[in-house]
Amino acid sequence: MKVKIKKLLLLAIVIITQFSYAQERAVTGIVSDNAGLPLPGVSVLIKGTQSSTQTDFDGKFSIKASPSQTLVFSYIGMKPQERLANSTTISVKLAEDAVELESVVVTALGIKRSEKTLGYAVSKITSDEISKSGEQNVMQALAGKAAGVQVIGSGGTPGASSKIIIRGVNTITGSSDPLIVIDGVPIDNTTSQTTAGDNPFNADLSGINNSNRALDINPDDIESVSILKGPAAAALYGERAGNGVILYTTKKGKIGKGLGIDFSTSLAIDKVSQLPSRQNKYAQGDINTTTKIPEYRTNTPQSWGPTAESLGIPMYDNVGNFFKEGLTYTNNISFYGGDNKATYRASYGNVTQTGMIPETGLKRNTLRIVGDLKLSEKWKTGGSLQYTHTTNTLAQNGSNVSGVMLSLLRSVGSYDLRNYKDAEGNNTNYFGSYDNPYFTVNENPATSDVNRVFGNMFLTYTPADWLSLTAKAGIDTYSDYRKQIFAISSNGDNLGGIGEVALNNITNKQYYADFIASGLLPLDSEWLKINYTAGLNLRSSQETNVFSRGKELAVRGNYNLSNATQLFTSNEDENIMSRALFGQLEFDIKNQLFVTGSVRKEWSSTYGTSVNSAIFPAASAAWILTSTFDLPEVINFVKLSYGYGEVGIAPQAYKTLSTYTQPFMTDGFTDGLSFPYNQVNGMTLEGSLGNQNLKPERVLGHELGLSTKFLENRLTFDINAYYKTSKDLLITLPLPTSSGFSSVYQNAAELVNKGLEIELGYDIFNKSNPFQWNINLNWSKNENEVTDIAGGLNEVEIEAAFGSIGYYAVKGQPLGSFYGRKWARDDNGNKIIGSDGLAIIADEVGNLGNSAPKWTGGLRNTFSYKRVTISGLLDFRHGGAVYNGTLARLHNFGVSEASADRERTYIIDGVKEDGTTNNISISAQDYYRKYLGDGGGAEEQAVTDVNWIRLRDVTLSYDFNVKRFSFLNSAQISFTGRNLWLNTNYKGVDPETSLTGAGSRINGLDYFNNPGSKSFIMSLKVGF
């Protein structure tokens, strides 16, 4: 009997034990790295289920699990670890993963590769760095963050365009813009100007600075950025990669339990960063040529009158009164989730911005959906779709009598600009030929309304490791409806007050498709692995541009073509098609030597029939010395790399044909005469001979790199040297008029870029230290030279600038040099002064300097202690010419601050024609007008070699402890300053400026440009 009782008790204990083990209970613990430092954000997943959690800021976690279940701990850069949940308390240490430390980067065609295997340089920028910039334009957000990447803004107004130049300009007359790719599909980043068919001038010099279309991308949707800088990296994109490639990877869904929600909101306050200083002592007027006494006169732009005090009249701070604080409200919300079979993310972003220039603004609404679905073990599909609605109200600028800055900066202090119209609504101003800036912003609005859709879909079939087939298709289409109004009494567009309404409709469609086969060749080898990629690409681009204009409005305030007396229309259509075959082989030899070779053959409708196609090869190699040799323990990683590649820039469309056009004649100052004339139409050969021998420009590039890591990977140092030759550059050459044509567009020039890039990163303290300090430095230098121009020419005008100064490619000189009048000098470099006391202008024009900087750099310091992080980026530029035409004109008109010192005479430094030191005095007006100003002086005087140090951004952030709130995953508040400090020798607006915008080839031109901005931004981010 006792034996039976014992057996029953034993059975009961076993049953109770089994029952208790089967029950879920809370398992808690802490996850740390090898140094014992807690790791926040570690994923803790119950194996075989969707139940998961993450560690908090202190590395702690809590999850319900039964003793028989297994917990999987995973973290980026660490080896995953599995632990049985047979204890209610678990401590886990994750080891660093050497493979993950090398990181994975996105390369051409969206191919992901380990960074250590690359034989060329790729710069990576994280979403956090994009966020810290505070920029709404994802192109401008890259400024100062990567070696060899120069960003040129066009002002701080809402929607202002931004241009990027990677490793120098590679073309003379083509676009210098890199190719923009989002999730493997190229998109349009055009900056197009509204231009009437009868406009004989460069419309970029005046009018509106339109946006580059990358503005339509929501920065909050960006996960990371890869910049393919050299031909070896970008060769698989062929004729579109001549200026490099920027790959944006967007945020995707995440595997986790339930629905995740991220919300962020921010407010930015914008102020004018820098303006040329003005005098506010002397009133409107001029100096009497007989008595030499200042006289008060109205209806003149000159401020050479008497002092306001002597006249007893008030002086107004017109510039200070005009600008206001700009406000930018940004809100983003995203919903995400997923499991082992599918992931998804849906987001909405909204931006509402009011500009520092009154009545200017930007509104952008973005909807984006992205998802992946695993249909089976062999089939996977996915895609993304984005809709963006962007509206923009822009300001007139530049060489434009309706331009805001032209009238504002020239304004006389004795006139209050706020009195901008009379009782009938007509423009009133201190000078009748200029539009009052208040009248411009209130009565002459220029608007842009963009609707854009882009996205892609893919289907992948992977039957084995040696074969994966992917079909991908993408579309990018947008319409841009622009409207420009010049009210009755406006002087804009040479109207003389008759009024105008101009409409511009631009539609752009791009279709893209890839079919790619890839895989790992099934070799029976332990020391050799070969990956292959091969495919077909098809692309189509269509653009229609319709311009219509009505002049001489019958009824004030009715801005419709039916209200106009004089009507004009013009339109342009462009269709381009291309197809390509490509292939790539990647050799992994003993995980030490990595060799890659690729080739792309491309056919394009812009090539001449005599050319038909082009081939773009590339090859690169990377050798991991630390895997081959037993180096000292302090050296963790050393890689030598070499890459060679060829990429292209396609010819302009329809240049293979001799086309007809409506003729016009102009004297260079007026709009001239054109057809239809007197109700009679006429057509003539355009003057350019069609060329069936056109082929793409070619950029051939070599690069050599060294990548190293020391001190347990805390110190990284990378250096890259490159040499690029741009051949078969397309330029317009003159023809004898007896041929019936005046010019021919052909491959006829060559230039060279060579440079050096350095990147340094250093984590000052070990990870176990609660205080962290990280330093990241980049520095780059590029030298450029035009080495050959065919046809016996020594120079080619890159783009029409002002009559006084040109922008040229000159054989033996750097590309993009300013050419204009220089001062005559003796053998010792002294200016030669004439008998009138003024410097003598040389007989021939000369090189006034090049707009490209001599070197650029960026230095980011990041400090963190527990939940507090401070990060700041210093941006450096040394050299690079800027033509300050604004200051030259302000000197001429007596408006500049320096010209207030006029109660004395001046002696210009130099020597007289007999070689003796100059001692001839001249009046202050002659000194500022004819020497420093543009009233007869040499353009040399207005060109400045610019240097700057700017605090590009500084951010203070705090991560809240949310573990007490079960519904919160994260919460962060941050304060960011953008461009808060600028130290420069430039006496104008912010020298990071471009009058002609991103759609122009001219850089460094300042002629009444809109000002730059500095911003203070407050942000809150919350995750649920």
Helix-strand blueprint:
Elements: H1 2-22, E1 25-32, E2 43-46, E3 52-54, E4 60-65, E5 70-74, E6 81-84, E7 89-93, H2 98-102, E8 104-106, E9 112-114, E10 122-126, H3 127-133, E11 149-153, E12 162-166, E13 179-182, E14 185-187, E15 206-208, E16 222-228, H4 231-234, E17 245-250, E18 260-272, E19 285-287, E20 294-296, H5 308-311, H6 318-322, E21 326-338, E22 342-354, E23 361-374, E24 379-394, E25 396-398, H7 404-410, H8 437-443, E26 446-464, E27 467-486, E28 500-520, E29 528-553, E30 564-589, E31 593-604, E32 613-624, H9 625-628, E33 635-649, E34 660-661, E35 664-665, E36 673-674, E37 684-685, E38 688-689, E39 697-710, E40 715-734, E41 743-763, E42 771-789, E43 795-802, E44 805-810, E45 817-820, E46 832-833, E47 846-850, E48 855-865, E49 868-884, H10 885-893, E50 911-912, H11 924-932, E51 943-959, E52 970-978, E53 982-984, E54 1005-1006, E55 1013-1023
Parallel strand pairs: 1-7, 13-17, 38-41, 46-50, 49-54
Antiparallel strand pairs: 1-4, 2-3, 2-5, 5-6, 8-9, 10-16, 11-12, 13-14, 15-25, 16-17, 18-21, 18-55, 19-20, 21-22, 22-23, 23-24, 24-26, 26-27, 27-28, 28-29, 29-30, 30-31, 31-32, 32-33, 33-39, 34-37, 35-36, 39-40, 40-41, 41-42, 42-48, 43-44, 44-45, 45-47, 48-49, 49-51, 51-52, 51-53, 52-55
3D structure, described in words:
The protein has 1024 residues and is mostly beta strands. The chain folds into 2 domains: 22-93, Sandwich (Immunoglobulin-like), CATH 2.60.40; 122-200 and 208-252 and 325-371 and 382-409 and 420-656 and 691-816 and 851-884 and 942-1023, TonB-dependent receptor, beta-barrel domain (Maltoporin, Chain A, Beta Barrel), CATH 2.40.170.20. Helix content is 8%, strand content 48%. It contains 11 helices and 55 strands. The protein has a 22-stranded antiparallel β-barrel. Helix 10 packs antiparallel against helix 11. It is globular. The protein starts with a helix and ends with a strand. Mean pLDDT is 90; it is low at 1-22. Residues 1-22 form the signal peptide. This is TonB-denpendent receptor. It is a multi-pass membrane protein.
